[in-house]
Amino acid sequence: xNSLTLIIGLVLLLFSGLxxxxxxxMHLMVKIHPxxxxxxxxxxxxxxxxxNCDGYQVFTRGVIANRVPRSxxxxxxxxxxxxxxxxxxxxxxxxxxDGHELTLSAEAEVEFNTAVPDNIHRPVEFFLGRPRQxxxxxxxxxxxxxxxxxxxxxxxxxxxxxxxELAENALVTxxxxxxxxxxxxxxxxxxxx
Length: 193
Fold this sequence. Notes:
- By secondary structure, this protein is an alpha+beta fold.
- The protein has 5 helices and 9 strands, in the order αββββββββααααβ.
């Protein structure tokens, strides 16, 4: 009876140790879904460990499937939504070159620049921990500012006749400002409001 109790006790101890190990292992792994970027921030002053949703590694020591290992027990993993931004906004009361005010509506598609490893730090630096609405608002403000600048150089008839060209020029001029934040403009459509 003592040997049976000892065997049962050892099996239970082994089983409970396995459960604790699996729990700790799962706690040390963080699931990354498509369209997410994960940033591991440690307690030391090391550079953050960044892994994008496809398992592409930047500043990291390893990825298992689509799970990210924590670099140390006391690190935080912060996820960031990097799906493309679909922007729909108004350029209200834009002053034209001939002294009139126009209201234009615009639609834009902007993506996070995560394809090149050296560029991943930019969107992380500017937008990590910020709500998606703030990212969308920032991109829309940059594009709106560039549209206003172009509209101020044209008269109302020139604007109405060349809305596609205006959109193309606004996209080109906004590109540098958006790229500084780790964003890439993909398309822009402008219509009379």
